[in-house]
Amino acid sequence: MKKELMIVDGYNMIGAWPDLVKLKNQDEMEEARDRLLHQLSNYQRYEGIEIQVVFDAQFVPGIQTSFQKYLVTVIFTKEGETADSYIERIVEEKNNRLTQVTVATSDMAEQWLVFSKGALRKSANELYRDLKRSNQAIKADTVSFHSKTVRRNTPWNPQQLTTLEELRENLSKKE
C-alpha cells in the first residue's frame, strides 16, 4: 500500500475557504494560517495521511523555513520562490511507487502540471468538503463512542427491565 502525501498550497486555501477568507479580509493572516493548520491536523489524523502545507515567501526576505505545527509540516519557501515552483519540485522528488502525492490547489495551471507528473490533484473546494465530511464523521464517532461508554453493564435483559419498571411504578402508586 502506498504512503499518501498531500501537499497543500496554503494561501490558495486561505483565499478559498469562507472562514479563512473572512480572517484574511480582516488582516488576520497569522490567525488564518493557524486555523488552516489546525483543521488540516484533524483531517490528517482522521484520514491517516501526511500533510505538508506550503506558503509563499516570495516577497519576504529570508531563507526557506520548515517546521511542525499541530503535527503538520509547514514550509515557507525561500525568497524569490513561489509555492507553485516548490510544489512542482516536491512532486518530482516524492511521487513514486511507494508514495502517492496529492496536491491541493485551485490553480488550474498548477493542477495540470502536477497531474502530468503523476500526482493527484484536489481543488480547495474539494478539500474543504472532504474536511467537513471528516469533521462530521469524527463527531459521529465521538457520539457513538460516548453512548457506548455511558451504558451500564446490567445482568437484566430489556424485557426484565420493563417488568421491573412496571413493578416500581405500581409500588410508587400505592404510596
From TrEMBL:
<dbReference type="Pfam" id="PF05991">
    <property type="entry name" value="NYN_YacP"/>
</dbReference>
<dbReference type="InterPro" id="IPR010298">
    <property type="entry name" value="YacP-like"/>
</dbReference>
<protein>
    <submittedName>
        <fullName>DNA-binding protein</fullName>
    </submittedName>
</protein>
<dbReference type="GO" id="GO:0003677">
    <property type="term" value="F:DNA binding"/>
</dbReference>
<keyword id="KW-0238">DNA-binding</keyword>
